Automatic annotation (TrEMBL):
<dbReference type="GO" id="GO:0016994">
    <property type="term" value="F:precorrin-6A reductase activity"/>
</dbReference>
<dbReference type="InterPro" id="IPR003723">
    <property type="entry name" value="Precorrin-6x_reduct"/>
</dbReference>
<protein>
    <submittedName>
        <fullName>Precorrin-6A reductase</fullName>
        <ecNumber>1.3.1.54</ecNumber>
    </submittedName>
</protein>
<comment type="pathway">
    <text>Cofactor biosynthesis; adenosylcobalamin biosynthesis.</text>
</comment>
<keyword id="KW-0560">Oxidoreductase</keyword>
<dbReference type="GO" id="GO:0009236">
    <property type="term" value="P:cobalamin biosynthetic process"/>
</dbReference>
<dbReference type="Pfam" id="PF02571">
    <property type="entry name" value="CbiJ"/>
</dbReference>
<keyword id="KW-0169">Cobalamin biosynthesis</keyword>
Length: 307
């Protein structure tokens, strides 16, 4: 693959990449169990000799790549950012770095004879997940979506928001001034635009790309906590005690995203916490499936290669 395309291909190891998939490849499928029937997959999903494309950039997606390697499945791994590239240095598949729109995805899938797509992107990466689903549906390509399990926590200081806009509205209505964001860098521009009077403190990844974004938004050194997770409960506790925010904003990121380790020490210190609700997964197409457990995914893959 040329480096002139929408994303740069980087081969990290010696996993062979097939040039094409034969009819036999596409017929080497994962059998569907009775429990899986009715979940969106009513036929087999090709895996054994085909080529799999994984969209990711999270710890979940890295774990799934590891399961593909154990199952000796030929795969490519697509990440959007420099942070994703750094996280994926240890994988054995082909690494694709860069953003693709629907048409670029569709062409890449067809040109590289992809037989199955696994969407293991961040649960809040709505645009990416929609594009992946649309591209797969356009060419009748089987899609498996990994949805990390949710974690629930109830407390009077914990409040839900349906979106970033809704979270900003709640902050302005409540009159909070110092706002700590643990929502990543994607929505920083929206928070800064809608909360010009608030003192925003953003916890973000310490990459040049993200820090340049913060600088462009006018967030100086008193507004940035540049750290890479996972963050322990004790670390979060110490950070909140040091920064003393009026409110903390986070996302329902599940165990892999350290959700409870973020919100429990927050409310223990009497700090209100706004949780932006996770988008509900929507799948279209005949061959679609949702998986929520890495172990189940591993067993599913092992069945597909005849073990």
């Amino acid at each position: 693959m040329s480096n002139d395309g929408p994303c740069q291909a980087m081969v990290n190891a010696t996993v062979p990449l097939s040039a094409s998939a034969t009819e036999a490849d596409l017929n080497a499928c994962v059998p569907v169990t009775d429990a899986e029937k009715g979940s969106g997959v009513e036929a087999c999903v090709p895996v054994k000799n085909g080529r799999v494309l994984v969209f990711g950039g999270t710890s979940d997606s890295m774990a799934l790549c590891g399961e593909l390697e154990k199952a000796e499945v030929n795969y490519s791994f697509s990440v959007a950012t420099e942070a994703g590239r750094q996280m994926a240095q240890g994988i054995k598949g082909e690494l694709l770095v860069g953003r693709m729109d629907v048409e670029q995805m569709r062409h890449w899938m067809q040109d590289n004879r992809i037989s199955l797509v696994i969407d293991a992107a961040h649960p809040y990466a709505q645009e990416l997940r929609q594009n992946v689903m649309t591209a797969c549906h356009a060419i009748n390509l089987p899609l498996v979506r990994f949805e990390r399990k949710s974690e629930s926590f109830t407390h009077p200081l914990l409040m839900d928001a349906t979106s970033v806009d809704d979270a900003c509205k709640k902050i302005k209505q409540s009159g909070w001034h110092k706002v700590m964001l643990t929502t990543g860098s994607k929505d920083l521009a929206t928070f800064c635009e809608q909360l010009p009077e608030q003192h925003i403190i953003a916890r973000v990844l310490p990459t040049a790309e993200v820090l340049a974004q913060c600088e462009a938004l006018g967030l100086g050194i008193d507004h940035i906590v540049a750290m890479k997770g996972p963050f322990s409960r004790a670390l979060n506790q110490a950070l909140y005690a040091s920064l003393l925010p009026d409110v903390m904003v986070t996302k329902e990121s599940g165990q892999a995203g350290g959700f409870l380790d973020k919100v429990q020490p927050c409310v223990e210190q009497g700090i209100p916490c706004i949780v932006i609700s996770r988008p509900k997964p929507v799948l279209v197409g005949e061959y679609c499936k949702i998986i929520q457990d890495i172990t189940a995914c591993s067993e599913w893959l092992q069945r597909g290669i005849g073990n």
